[in-house]
């Protein structure tokens, strides 16, 4: 009857396990992408943002650290599996100041992913026409070398790579 016809005419669905692995088409790299280190959020009021995460949500929140080389104040919010980095402008030429001029209430600024060899990553990404926003790595908030990849080359996301 009708039930038999419906069962036999059901379309087949290809599941990810039966399709080709994505990694089969990716050539071997000299470096390896690691875990998500943090998501950075630009905030117009750092004290208010710290209070939200610490007093309202109960998170462990670091002290404020000034990073003059990057033009920012940073605060890290521990989440167990990753962190949030709260960014606030330090000085007139801060990239966060210009971000907040366009986004008055703040918002996601960048994501940070760890790599096992930042120099090898830089070399290979340049070969693949991914723009890096500095000639050499700078020391980031964790005291480790970091680089930023141009958001237009990363689907609209500013990506920070940090040496693991």
Automatic annotation (TrEMBL):
The reply to whether Metal-binding figures as a keyword in the UniProt entry is yes
The entry lists its GO molecular-function terms as: metal ion binding; methylmalonyl-CoA epimerase activity
> Is this entry keyworded Isomerase?
yes
What UniProt keywords are attached to this protein's entry? Cobalt, Isomerase, Metal-binding
Ranges for domain VOC: 35-164
Give positions of region: Disordered.
1-23
Q: Which CDD domains match?
A: MMCE (cd07249)
Q: Which residues form the signal peptide?
A: none
One GO biological process term: L-methylmalonyl-CoA metabolic process
* InterPro entries reported for this sequence: Glyas_Bleomycin-R_OHBP_Dase (IPR029068), MeMalonyl-CoA_epimerase (IPR017515), MMCE/EMCE_epimerase (IPR051785), VOC_core (IPR037523)
Q: Reaction(s) catalyzed by this protein?
A: (R)-methylmalonyl-CoA = (S)-methylmalonyl-CoA
EC identifiers of the protein = 5.1.99.1
Enzyme class of the recorded protein, top EC level: isomerase
Q: Which family does it belong to?
A: Belongs to the methylmalonyl-CoA epimerase family.
User: Which NCBIfam families does the annotation name?
Assistant: metmalonyl_epim
Main function? Methylmalonyl-CoA epimerase involved in propionyl-CoA metabolism.
This protein is called what?
Answer: Methylmalonyl-CoA epimerase, mitochondrial
What organism does this protein naturally occur in?
Calyptomena viridis (Lesser green broadbill)
Q: What broad taxonomic lineage does this protein's source fall under?
A: Eukaryota, Metazoa, Chordata, Craniata, Vertebrata
Q: Which gene encodes it?
A: Mcee
